[in-house]
UniProtKB/TrEMBL annotation:
GO terms for cellular component: mitochondrial intermembrane space. Pfam families: CMC4. Gene3D superfamilies: CytochromE C oxidase copper chaperone. It comes from the Eukaryota. The lineage of its organism: Eukaryota, Metazoa, Chordata, Craniata, Vertebrata. Its main location: mitochondrion. This is Cx9C motif-containing protein 4. It is found in: Mitochondrion. InterPro entries: CMC4, Cys_alpha_HP_mot_SF. Belongs to the CMC4 family. Disulfide bonds join 7-38, 17-28, 39-50. Keywords: Disulfide bond, Mitochondrion.
């Protein structure tokens, strides 16, 4: 049996918040931040629900501003 995703609870809370607030992401920033905190506690690849944040961080590192 696969291990439970350690950040699944936070991901579900985001979905609940978005549904309750007509999918306005701005109203769910606190819940999204909780998921980010959870993701930061685990090694890369440990949580499937964190994969989007991991990709986002990688893109920030590779797309540095040119000035």
């Amino acid at each position: 049996m696969p291990q439970k995703d350690p950040c699944q609870k936070q991901a579900c809370e985001i979905q609940k918040c978005l549904q309750a607030n007509n999918y306005m992401e701005s109203k769910c920033q606190a819940v999204i931040q909780e998921l980010r905190k959870c993701c930061a506690r685990y090694p890369k690849g440990r949580s499937l629900v964190c994969s989007g944040f991991e990709r986002e961080e990688e893109e920030k590192l590779t797309l540095k501003p040119t000035s």
